[in-house]
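Hi Y.,

Following your request, here is the sequence exactly as I used it, all 155 residues.
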Amino acid sequence: MRCPFCNDPSNRVVDSRLSGEGQEIRRRRECDECSRRFTTRERIDALVPKIIKRDERREEYDRAKIERSIQKACVKRPVSENGVQRLVDRVERRLGESGEAEVDSDLIGDVILEELIALDPLAAARFASVFRDFTSAADYDAFFATLTGDDELAD
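Below is the corresponding structure, written out as tokens. Let me know if you'd prefer a different format.
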């Protein structure tokens, strides 16, 4: 592990902690050369399936892509970065537990949407507007009707 400040390879671990619901180790390190501290994270490589896009292309799973989409939905919402990371961890766990070699991107979107609804319904509406391609206010009405269970608005 090289220091991000001086690029020296010699450093020592000052502190280690479990995070991410025990799926990740956070290590606080100190560079032996410049004495600056930095954080590294170790995560088990989850066996996540390949993603089948809507146009039938196959892609490798990309955690950063999911994080970015969730972060965009949560802009100016009371959702912490830690909350976003835990949500992505839960999505990855559910994908890994599926046991499938490939999954549709729609399934991933549905899992993210389900998790976002529990975390922040307005962030979920933002995510759904892109994921489900909302084109009118009626689409939003139908989405919020499903949250409240009011099927009359969904018609």
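The beta strands are 11-19, 24-31, 37-43, 50-52, 58-59, 102-104.

Thanks again,
Q.
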